[in-house]
Task: structure prediction
Amino acid sequence: MRTIINATNKLVHLVAAVTFAATLAAAQQPPPSAAKLQTESLERLATKASQVVDVNIDERVLRLVPIKMLMESSDKDEQIAAQLLKELKGVYVRSYEFNAPGEYGESDVSGVRTQLRSPGWTRIVNVIQKKDGRTVEVHLLDDGAKIGGLAVVAFEPRRLTLVNIVGNVDMEKLSRLEGRFGIPELNIGRDQDDENEPETKPAKKP
Result:
């Protein structure tokens, strides 16, 4: 009888230890990155849009990009893009183009705006171009030590674009990614009153 009791006690202790270890491991798992925005609320726009861009490049896919080849390229833009990519954990793009103005509204982006108002996120750029009805917002997720992510929201009468980059973003080099990986040419720093605005360049291949 004593042998059975001892064996039972050992089993109970073993189960308790395993349960504790599993709980501790779960507690140590990092939470879903706050830098990655949830975009389910935008999905309903796909049925209205005449053109949809949906890009999902997570860290696993980013590691497949031939960064070494880009670093050795004679193209300085490709070298800088490679340096940026080494620090990133994800690139996500949602862009919806419509046949006519007024096909989307504030309610369609309220879910994204709510996330961008959460702690850590700060809007650092707000460009309003009244002439063509275009507004561009740039938001950063900053933990005080480094940048954890970035979101660019571009509102146009017939187009809505969201670019969400997860990872340590170098703002000075960020423009080198425009036209790559589905990221459109946002031209945030361009003169807003330039009437000879160039056409959007086609996206470059990664």
Q: What stands out?
A: The mean pLDDT is 74. The first strand starts at residue 51 and ends at 58. Residues 40-177 form one domain. Helices lie at 2-28, 59-62, 67-71, 76-85, 106-116.
